[in-house]
Design goal:
homodimer; 426 residues; Dihydrodipicolinate Reductase, domain 2; 2 domains; 8-stranded mixed sheet; 6-stranded parallel sheet; 17% strand
């Protein structure tokens, strides 16, 4: 296999991170870079020049990238609003597509992704790095091995104090500010939802059926801005539409529920609140702890603190080695590479190796569409007072047949073997 | 003030606990006891005789208790289904009513509680012990002092592995078994909701507006029973209606959201998942940790574990003394008394002291009705696929006027001063 020839579209905060990780990979050549802002396109070009012995093609028009025959695959790290447009154009141009995380603005856009992928035969993989988190993969490994029994309920969240980032939106040209000004929804569901979708075999024997969503008032951002910039600042006059805490519950065809929380405009520590409940075990991210029925006798089954403390961080001290995912065992032995604790390297490897092998990526266009759809569906539910809304079946029934589908083989770090080996019960 | 003369109705598991705590109080005489089962009524009588120098009146018919003129107040610790019937009869008989926690089976029953209390002038206080938990009162103290800024979102849960209790229901005559067999709802919302309602000034300047509820499938109990009792056991043939995890979101008039979880049929550690988000601070029960905007610089604002660890149990090590509620400071100095870490003693004191003073209890009939209503409303929402349902205003508009209402003064440990001193914003 030759080197993968990559086009890189979007060089904001996230693009900088992804390009940095990519340029440490010998089997990937970044032959073309793009950003709508001239300064950023220039910065991306310089970054490649620093690390490699060639000068990449550089442009502010992504269509110039797509026209190039030497580009086999593209990474799309633009603003949320441009993801679908660029991804569709890229598939139509015959490129392998890796698209950064984000939510959809309409169900129609999700369908267009699916149809374009089906018509062109080009995959569209959401680069959901949290699917490759150590804790998330540990739980996936346990689910595969039956350690959780039957999964019943999963929680996930995006708790991240981004008040500074959002309120710096005009200076740093960040898309969150305009989204927080005008919309109310779970605008960033996939860090929470992607790993859970993998646990629950979504689109491979299971699917999202419906959801309800409720939102708190919007107070955190305004108060932060007033304190930091004063009442007379232009941003202090914005009546933000985005509630501080959005809570969503998704019902699955298998009878499981998924609870999602978005909260980025209040003070608190970062957490994805990854929290998995099965009939035989429970995992909690906040304390990095497992509670296993098999070890019942080791827990004091009384009220309050004693039990809670006995749980604290027992994955670190007790269960970590036993349940660690094979990918992570190998990764830790060989040395963890950069980017969000190693996840970025793993997700990019999965995408690049899929593209090199001309194989289906482990996160396919149906996953991408279903995960993105949650944003616009929560927006609908919230706008109508929290009514249940249906999640479309983007596979058009193929999720049932796909239950037993063998996934393609991708070497080394990819998740390729995972989706089909987790059997749904009930 | 003379001693309070108390009638005690219901001597199951909970009644045993409450009577035990009560008999250590010198200013309360338990003059009459009752349980529908003869053996339990007898056991209650013997318990009083053991601890006191008199023999209480004993009966299997609670109406006999209510007829007695020497009974001033009653504690009702019967099955969930009997709470409202007994409470209404007791108020009509002119007794002060303290009723154990539980949910309503119809909205009509909630209204009947309210109307009976208004017509008779007799209070009906839910004995929600968790309102008196140390963590819960710490947060209430902080809210009063403005340390949370403006409250935006609160979480609460009843996570308690009761698979053994529920599946022993026939042997121990426990009402949970029949409820889990036939119903699906948040049947036990008040441990989570009561303390949050106090934080948010519900019925005193704020109220519950609507809720949505979603439920997972029911798997935990059946699997547990099959493993423990075998497939041929009668209980193994039950098709339990109660989902393992019920997630509910309540919207308040003040724009806050409250998330509730019920989960008692899966393996995990006990937790009420008490979790409070304001514009200036965040409290998390799972790690007993506070995150304060004022201390922002002390936290590493990076991804994942480092931040999470820095939060662990910092209330114990750092913030506990500063924020501890005055009631708990005093309680700890004088010595904590028994019952669920001290909460039972505090909630019973609040009720008994209110009754002795002929004063309004800190949890009134409107609170009792509103908190209980959540069970039947979640049942409605779940039955209809998660649609939003309205929460009635049991105060008929008085919640607006009550914003500034000064509560009665109750000495020592009561919560009396709390509800009106927390000002709603926005």
């Amino acid at each position: 296999m030759g080197k993968l020839k990559l086009g890189f579209i979007g060089y904001g905060q996230r693009g900088v991170g992804l390009l940095g990780v990519t340029l440490n990979m010998d089997d990937v050549d970044v032959v073309a870079v793009c950003d709508e802002y001239e300064d950023r396109a220039e910065a991306a070009k310089k970054k490649v020049e620093e690390k490699r012995e060639y000068t990449p093609f550089s442009t502010t028009d992504y269509r110039e990238i797509l026209k190039r025959e030497d580009v086999e695959a593209v990474v799309i790290a633009t603003s949320w609003e441009a993801h679908v447009e660029v991804a569709i154009a890229a598939m139509k141009a015959g490129k392998y597509v890796g698209v950064e995380v984000g939510g959809a603005y309409s169900i129609e856009d999700c369908w267009r992704l699916v149809h374009t992928s089906e018509e062109t035969g080009m995959p569209c993989m959401m680069l959901e790095n949290c699917c490759y988190g150590k804790k998330e993969l540990m739980c996936l490994n346990m689910v595969k091995n039956g350690d959780f029994g039957e999964l019943v309920h999963c929680n996930g969240a995006y708790h991240h104090d981004l008040r500074n980032e959002v309120s710096s939106g005009n200076e740093i040209r960040h898309y969150r500010l305009r989204n927080y000004t005008h919309r109310n929804c779970d605008n960033y569901p996939t860090h929470a939802l992607g790993p859970i979708a993998k646990l629950l075999n979504i689109n491979r024997g299971n699917r999202f059926l419906s959801l309800v969503s409720m939102s708190s008032k919007a107070r955190g951002l305004h108060e932060y801005i007033v304190n930091k910039r004063g009442k007379e600042d232009d941003l202090a006059k914005i009546d933000f539409k985005q509630g501080d805490v959005v809570t969503t519950v998704i019902k699955c065809a298998g009878g499981e529920t998924i609870r999602l929380t978005l909260s980025i405009t209040l003070p608190r520590a970062y957490s994805r609140d990854f929290d998995i409940s099965g009939t035989k075990a429970y995992y909690q991210e906040e304390t990095n702890s497992l509670y296993l029925d098999r070890d019942e006798a080791t827990y004091e089954k009384e009220y309050g603190e004693v039990v809670a403390k006995s749980l604290w961080n027992n994955v670190e001290t007790t269960y970590g080695k036993e349940f660690n995912h094979p990918i992570w065992k190998k990764y830790e032995e060989e040395g963890i590479k950069g980017g969000h604790g190693g996840m970025d390297w793993l997700v990019l490897r999965a995408f690049y190796e899929s593209a090199m092998a001309k194989a289906d990526p482990p996160i396919d266009v149906y996953d991408t569409a279903a995960w993105m759809s949650i944003s616009t569906l929560t927006e609908d539910s919230l706008a109508m007072g929290g009514i249940p809304v249906a999640v479309p079946d983007f596979t058009n029934g193929k999720w049932i047949k796909n239950k037993d589908r063998k996934r393609n083989e991708i070497p080394t770090y990819s998740l390729a073997e995972i989706p089909e080996t987790v059997e749904l019960k009930g």
